[in-house]
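Schema walk-through. Below, the input block comes first and the output block second. Nothing else is stored per chain. Lengths vary across the set, and this one has 71 residues.
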Amino acid sequence: RNNTPSEPVFVPRHKNSSEGEGFILTVVYQGNKNTSDLYILDAMNIDKKPLAIIHLPIRIPFGFHGNWVEL
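--- output ---
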């Protein structure tokens, strides 16, 4: 289908979550449409369907490695 996922990011469900309890977010490039989708997966059930797929009207460029935010 010509889809390429970016590096996934783990987001804890809440501040005091147990290890692994949270979400996996990854941007997936849709090569056939030249757009991107944000996939949100349950980290404890990664083999299940995504909890949500957010269709973006543009292509999100691939990053080098990881994401950095100031905390």
